[in-house]
């Protein structure tokens, strides 16, 4: 068993090594430049668009907002708490800067995934939209075999990193902080998730549309309290983040490469830009133009990494808890200790509660991604059986050891990126054309608004 674990660990290190990181960041940078920094220019409009209801007559299953919340549900998770702590513990405060860089170029990646997801989506037998990398790889690149490979990797990852690993993490947190038996946590998760996903994407959209904003606001509010209470330390924390990003002083030997690798890897793990999941969620949205939903979808990267991850990062840097990382059993405990230092008596509970919500939402989001991949491979007939098995796997994950499952799922999660990135690069012309259509439509809308104002 130890040999198998070592093999999986080595393969995971290889998959998530420098080549993938360069490909992920390079693709994001290429798309950012090719789109003439469109993602930066349109960020304010994209954020305002999240809450606008203007898609009543458009095809789709859920609103812009619900599609974004579904994507956020799957990405705002352990990576925002444990992932950031791990990055800072190993790579130093400078790793946070490289997480930000990854997010800024990742917005173009997520934007492109969403455009292609909507552009190549199709209705299934139940009248629901299906889309994502498997569809734009098959229909756009005419590579059915590569689409099947992506769907296979994502289907496995859904049961690992999107299911059993998450329930195991939740069970551990609930037991450590609230002394709740792991089997009870597993049973509760299975029941609650089952009630949500049995109704499909419309049910998922309604639930995450309520849960995700609440959990994110809860965590950000706690982070803001820490920042406000220690406002004098914030400038020095940012200064340390920026200087360490290029010096690597907090890493043994001053290895700047280690700082960059940790920041980029954990940033990607947190926001999933380049893995393809954003295109699956976007395909379900009601939208008149692919680019309009894509703008909404790209805000997920901004919210996930630039806002939520920064709250965790600042708490870790200001508390200097990352210097004592070896004293804690897990990265999540390190973040918990940092919050506890600033909020004595309940800071640790804040992180524990946030983590439980994050895990729950991640499971719901990934249940949809996994289902779309399974139905792509085996047809709509497997939809209900998949949901039942997915729910049962949650209980199993809570009560068994998952070292091998975690490693294997991590490998599958990384392997999803390769076929998706190939498609993004080869179909970037489609992204550019759809963006031009949106720009023309947007100009017409702005002229109409000016005309209406002039008439008044």
UniProtKB/TrEMBL annotation:
It is found in: Cell membrane. Gene3D superfamilies: Amino acid/polyamine transporter I. The keyword Transcription does not apply. Keywords: Cell membrane, Membrane, Symport, Transmembrane, Transmembrane helix, Transport. Pfam families: Na_Ala_symp (PF01235). The keyword Cell membrane applies. It is a multi-pass membrane protein. One of its GO terms (cellular component) is plasma membrane. The chain crosses the membrane at residues 20-47, 68-90, 141-162, 182-201, 208-231, 237-260, 301-325, 345-369, 389-409, 415-432. Its main location: membrane. It comes from the Bacteria. GO terms for molecular function: amino acid:sodium symporter activity. NCBIfam families: agcS. PANTHER family: AGSS FAMILY TRANSPORTER, SODIUM-ALANINE, TRANSCRIPTIONAL REGULATOR, LRP FAMILY. Belongs to the alanine or glycine:cation symporter (AGCS) (TC 2.A.25) family. This is Sodium:alanine symporter family protein. It comes from Salipaludibacillus agaradhaerens (Bacillus agaradhaerens).
């Amino acid at each position: 068993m130890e040999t198998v674990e070592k093999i999986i660990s080595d393969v995971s290190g290889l998959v998530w090594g420098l080549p993938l990181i360069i490909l992920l960041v390079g693709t994001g940078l290429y798309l950012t430049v090719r789109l003439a920094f469109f993602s930066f220019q349109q960020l304010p409009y994209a954020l305002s668009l999240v809450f606008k209801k203007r898609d009543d007559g458009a095809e789709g299953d859920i609103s812009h907002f619900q599609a974004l919340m579904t994507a956020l549900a799957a990405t705002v998770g352990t990576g925002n708490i444990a992932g950031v702590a791990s990055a800072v513990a190993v790579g130093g405060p400078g790793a946070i800067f490289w997480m930000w860089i990854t997010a800024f170029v990742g917005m173009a990646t997520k934007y492109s995934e969403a455009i292609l997801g909507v552009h190549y989506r199709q209705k299934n037998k139940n009248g629901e939209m299906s889309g994502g990398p498997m569809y734009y790889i098959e229909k756009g690149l005419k590579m059915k075999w590569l689409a099947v490979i992506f769907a296979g990797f994502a289907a496995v990852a859904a049961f690992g990193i999107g299911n059993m690993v998450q329930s195991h993490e939740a069970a551990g947190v609930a037991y450590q902080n609230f002394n709740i038996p792991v089997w009870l946590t597993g049973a509760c998760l299975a029941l609650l998730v089952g009630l949500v996903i049995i109704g499909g994407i419309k049910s998922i959209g309604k639930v995450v549309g309520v849960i995700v904003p609440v959990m994110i606001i809860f965590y950000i509010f706690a982070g803001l309290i820490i920042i406000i209470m220690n406002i004098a330390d914030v400038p020095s924390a940012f200064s340390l983040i920026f200087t360490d990003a290029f010096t690597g002083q907090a890493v043994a030997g001053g290895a700047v490469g280690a700082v960059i690798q940790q920041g980029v890897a954990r940033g990607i793990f947190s926001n999933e830009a380049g893995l393809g999941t954003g295109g699956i969620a976007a395909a379900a949205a009601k939208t008149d133009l692919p680019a309009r939903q894509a703008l909404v979808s790209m805000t997920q990267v901004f919210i996930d990494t630039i806002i939520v991850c920064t709250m965790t990062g600042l708490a870790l840097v200001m508390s200097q808890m990352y210097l004592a990382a070896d004293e804690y059993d897990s990265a999540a405990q390190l973040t918990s200790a940092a919050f506890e230092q600033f909020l004595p008596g309940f800071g640790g509970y804040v992180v524990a509660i946030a983590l439980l919500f994050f895990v729950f939402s991640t499971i719901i989001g990934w249940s949809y991604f996994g289902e779309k991949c399974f139905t792509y491979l085996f047809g709509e007939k497997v939809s209900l059986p998949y949901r039942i098995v997915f729910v049962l796997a949650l209980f199993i994950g809570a009560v068994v050891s998952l070292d091998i499952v975690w490693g294997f799922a991590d490998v599958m999660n990384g392997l999803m990126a390769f076929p998706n990135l190939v498609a993004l690069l080869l179909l970037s012309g489609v992204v550019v054309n759809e963006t031009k259509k949106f720009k023309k439509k947007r100009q017409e809308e702005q002229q109409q608004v000016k005309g209406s104002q002039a008439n008044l």
